[in-house]
Design a protein that fits this description.
Elements (H helix, E strand, L loop, with lengths): L3 H6 L13 H4 L9 E5 L4 H12 L3 E6 L2 H14 L4 E6 L5 H13 L6 E4 L17 H28 L3 E6 L25 H26 L3 E7 L2 E2 L8 H10 L4 E2 L1 H4 L1 H8 L10 E3 L2 E2 L9 H16 L6
Parallel strand pairs: 1-2, 1-4, 2-3, 4-5, 5-6, 6-9, 7-8
Antiparallel strand pairs: 9-10
The chain binds NADP nicotinamide-adenine-dinucleotide phosphate.
Length: 324
């Protein structure tokens, strides 16, 4: 088990890794040269380091990004240190159902396999705003965009797993913040209710949704007998662009909590562990912190809420503009 003690000391858990482990370290012996991966938000922060390390292990990695220029810069940096890296960039705005659908169509048209989907992109603590489809922005970006993307790519992943015999893996970047959603968990009765909006609780809600998505999707895949696992991770506390809406507060907070923070290579470790580590073969519906399994909140373990969120999300992605 992990906790504050192991976080601060870097003490390793039963996986053999801990909070001080880096993405390179946890994938050291892994050959990913037969893997094709998509990393959303792979042009910066934890995602960019994830792309770099997956490519270092031989994977063909597609950066799914709303900022193609930043992705090209990230790709150039990776190639500067690893000329064999196989990295591409494709445009994706997760806050737009149209963009998600276009991305999926474009990816499928490439006729590539897909072994690994890392749902990494995210926004945090933004002021209230509706997406172009009329859904609160943190829920739309962090959960709904990834929900739709995953569904659109699922047949491709199933086919790849069947054809190659290689287990497909889906990794959702959740957060410890999933334990602080609205009091009712997911605000089904007012997802767009600005009068009751809290940027902090809406972020927690979206990260809870990431975990509930894992729960229901893994159940469905298991029932189908699909050779695909789905897990979620909390990467740790890492100073990235994610803090843009709370930069001043976070800098002050960091002064008092500096022992709890990780650097980016450490921040990408748990994602890369869940994505590639051989010890997780067949492991699904789990949540990892510092590369070790951890229990999620009671809401995140609620099967009824997971199913309700699935239906709610399907309804939302079906309609292009809904508000309440
Ligand atoms: N950093 C932490 O302490 C921490 C803690 C817990 C969980 N997490 C989670 O880890 C993940 C990665 O965060 P990070 O810290 O690496 O932050 P980051 O550097 O800001 O990376 C997030 C990425 O998501 C992209 N993104 C945001 N909105 C998007 C959209 N609508 N469509 C496509 N891409 C979009 C961003 O693109 P732009 O550059 O264009 O904005 C950026 O590349 C997030 O899901 C976050 O919730 C982070």
């Amino acid at each position: 088990m992990v906790g504050i003690f192991t976080l601060v000391t870097g003490l390793r858990g039963s996986s053999g890794f801990g909070s001080a482990s880096t993405a390179e370290e946890v994938t050291k012996a892994v050959d990913a040269s037969n893997i094709t991966a998509i990393v959303t938000g792979g042009a910066s922060g934890i995602g960019a380091e994830t792309v770099r390390v997956l490519a270092l292990r031989g994977a063909h990695v597609i950066i799914a990004t709303r900022n193609l220029k930043a992705a090209e810069e990230a790709k150039k940096m990776i190639l500067d240190s690893n000329s064999n890296a196989h990295v591409d960039a494709m445009e994706l705005d997760l806050s737009s159902f149209k963009s998600v659908r276009t991305f999926a169509d474009n990816f499928i048209a490439k006729n590539l396999p897909l072994n690994l989907l890392i749902n990494n992109a995210g926004v945090m603590f933004c002021p209230f705003r509706l997406s172009e489809d009329g859904v609160e922005m943190q829920f739309a970006t962090n959960h709904l965009g990834h929900f739709l993307l995953t569904n659109l790519l699922l047949d491709k992943m199933k086919m790849t797993a069947k054809d190659t015999g290689i287990e497909g893996r889906i990794v959702n970047l959740s957060s410890i913040a999933h334990v602080h959603p609205y009091p009712e968990g997911i605000r089904f009765d007012g997802i767009n209710d600005e009068s009751r909006y809290s940027s902090r609780l809406a972020y927690g809600q979206s990260k809870l949704a990431n975990n509930l998505h894992v729960k229901e999707l893994s159940r469905r895949l298991k029932n189908e007998g699909a050779n695909i696992t789905v897990n979620s991770v909390h990467p740790g506390l890492i100073m990235t662009n994610l803090m843009r809406h709370s930069a001043f507060f976070m800098r002050i907070f960091q002064i008092f909590t500096f022992l709890f923070w990780k650097n980016v290579p450490q921040g990408a470790a748990t994602t890369c562990y869940a994505a590639l580590h051989p010890s997780l073969k067949g492991v699904s519906n789990k949540y990892f912190v510092d590369c070790n399994e951890m229990k999620t909140s009671a809401f995140a373990r609620d099967q009824t809420m997971a199913e309700k969120l699935w239906d709610f999300s399907e309804d939302l992605v079906r309609s292009s503009a809904k508000s309440n």
